Amino acid sequence: MEDNKSASINNDLLFHLEDIDCISQSYPFISTSHHTMILFTNGCGTLTIDDIPYLVTKGKIFLVQPHSMIDLSDINHGYRFYKIAFSAFQLKHKHPSPHLGSIFSDEVEYTIYPYTRLIRLSEDLYNLNPKLDFLKQQGVLYELLNLLFEHQLHMNYQLTMTKAVEETIDYIHNYFRQPLTVKKLAELARIAQWQYSTIFQTLTGKKPLDYITDLRLTNAKELLLQTNEPLKDIAQQVGFDDEYYFNRRFRQVIGIPPKQFARQYKQKTVVKDWTGHEVAIPRSPHRVIYHGETFGDMLIFDVQPIGGNKNSISKSFYKNHVPYIQDVAFPINLEKSSKLNPDLIIFTNNDEQQYQALSSIAPTVTLNSWDSLEERVLLLGQWLSQQQRAEDWLEYFKIQENTMWQQLQTVVEPGETASVLTFDHGKRLFIMGCTGLSPALFHPDGFQPHPQVKKLLQAGEGYREIPIDHLPQYAGDRIFMLLSDKPESQMATMELINSDMWKGLPAVQTNHTYLVDATKWNYGDAFTREKLLGALPKLLVTAK
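User: That's the sequence. What structure does it adopt?
Assistant: Structure tokens below.
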């Protein structure tokens, strides 16, 4: 494994502490004339540095370059942070000159655990007398910078190891038909075997040998359905030397013997889809393209989708659970879809022209992604012949969801309303209805939809564009503002939350507003909804 060189500190740099402040009063803006370290000991909200927003929590550190503008206006009252200003000098030909660029990384935001050491060092630095303890102050500054550097070096090293393991996963997909061992894969990655297995399981959710077995069996299932070759030949083609071992592993993992699988899965059943088509689909499809924003619904079933919108998936929480999903683009690309040889295409769109084109490739069914989570999961269970799995997951999810809201009774007042807003397509403001984060907030023991949002839900609308000056008519007791990854929409969000209209909203005045990453949380699929059960309490309790 190559030595990591992506994080390095210039040996010719010297540092000098200029000033340290402990700030706990309202400072709307701070302009930096030196390198500045901001370390929060309390508070939450959004810190904006040179028009780029960052989420603030206790222990979060920001390393800001000189001549930057820091906007603190959207951090909840009660915040407290240390502002450590220091100069950097570069020795050139033994003559120091000011260094205004990055210190050792372009990173601005740092989260280091445990953060107690950082807070203690900052407190020590603040309490030292600059005249009597000058050298001690400089030493503590170097210690703080060293912690940041070690953290960045460790993170980059972890990323390098992760990339090495990802490359071996590519290798597995190319050479799974050959004998493979964990020892050999770890040697290819040039890391210790125990580290390799840990990182591999984090990336894929499976142990290396289990992953290889599943991959071989997946290919075996395709051959069983597409050919009439003897089991011995199929076993050898996918990497099993022994036909009897292949038969035993197939039955252990799939649940039925290979020959029974071939007979059962070649059967078809007729279903009716969202837009009224009656379609003959495989009784148990296994090469499924799922094109739509509720892709995560598929991940609760024993069917790994082979195609989807990779751009959207790459930003999601489940991206590492489908590392080899093939991209069929957005809008869906017919040529890419055809090359995947699917046996079922699930299409969350009512475009009839696109539907007809897709149905010429494989049996295609349309699904309404704005239907409720329960409706979608039950329908997928029917199409995938996994009805019991769908019912079991829904029962489990409802128990977990009820428990979450019951535990939040001290935080959520009875009858409190909520609204979810976002800027998208530039500076266009939308109120969210049946899709994304919005439905996850509404529960008999949780939040209630704002009356205007309730109308959207009753009409089955996913969202509605509203004029910005109509915002007060849609604002609930709690406001969840989804932050887009598009710069123009981010700017529009910042402009809104700095406006007098925003500051006059009751939810803002009671500190009941939440800035949420849209690329992660504006999904209503089963996988994301399950993740939200753990994340939502943290968001509400921390803000409270």
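Confidence is low (pLDDT under 50) at residues 1-8.
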